[in-house]
Write a structure and sequence with these properties.
By secondary structure, the protein is α/β, with parallel strands linked by helices. The protein has a single domain, classed as 3-Layer(aba) Sandwich (Rossmann fold). About 35% of the residues lie in helices and about 20% in strands. The protein is built from six helices and seven strands. Strands 3-2-1-4-5-7-6 form a seven-stranded mixed sheet, with helices on both faces. Strand 2 (about 70-75), helix 5 (about 80-90) and strand 3 (about 95-100) form a beta-alpha-beta unit. Helix 3 (about 25-40) packs across helix 4. The protein is globular, with a radius of gyration of 15 Å. The mean pLDDT is about 85.
């Protein structure tokens, strides 16, 4: 595991025990997700898969609350899944946001119209290739990319230069942009 994913995991697992403080992360995630919702044209009819939700799956929560879409979160850390499930219950979002254990490299994405790959998800490139093979026709995949100076702390991330399509700039401290990939075949 690389430095930033390990730090984020540690931070979220500890912060989730302080529910009122964990709610402050909404201010961080809401504008990021708003730009991603617009980029991916996510609406209430979409079935969304989030790869790498962590203990505090704010991206999934924001997608569900901003769009009305049903969101399924996959995380490869069983303890994070347990904490995230409790967090979703506390927010009273059961049924709108579902969390389960799994590996983004192997999850069946055929029933989903949108997938989202977290910045901490590893290895991003293999997850992206798998999702583009298994997601439904016209499915969209959103991928968060770190700023250039931060990339070495995340591991195997997608390089923004590999895309000639659409993206949205992000203004947070570690994230450069979110890329959009669409499956047409």
């Amino acid at each position: 595991m690389k430095v930033m994913p390990a730090c984020t995991t540690f931070f979220e697992k500890n912060l989730c025990h302080l529910f009122p403080l964990s709610l402050l992360l909404k201010k961080y995630y809401a504008p990021i997700v708003k730009r991603e919702v617009l980029l991916g044209k996510i609406n209430e009819e979409d079935q969304v898969l989030c790869i790498g939700g962590g203990a505090l799956p704010w991206t999934a929560v924001e997608i569900a609350t901003q769009t009305g879409a049903t969101v399924h979160v996959i995380d490869s850390d069983p303890y994070a899944v347990k904490l995230a499930s409790k967090f979703i219950r506390l927010l009273k979002l059961e049924g709108k946001v579902n969390v389960r254990f799994g590996d983004g490299q192997y999850v069946d994405a055929s029933g989903f119209t949108v997938a989202h790959i977290a910045l901490q998800a590893y290895p991003q490139e293999k997850i992206l290739c798998h999702l583009l093979q298994s997601i439904s026709r016209n499915g969209r995949v959103l991928v968060r990319c770190p700023k250039k100076r931060m990339a070495c702390l995340y591991g195997d991330c997608i390089a923004p230069s590999c895309l000639n399509g659409k993206s949205t700039k992000q203004s947070c401290s570690t994230m450069k942009e979110t890329l959009l990939f669409t499956k047409y075949t």
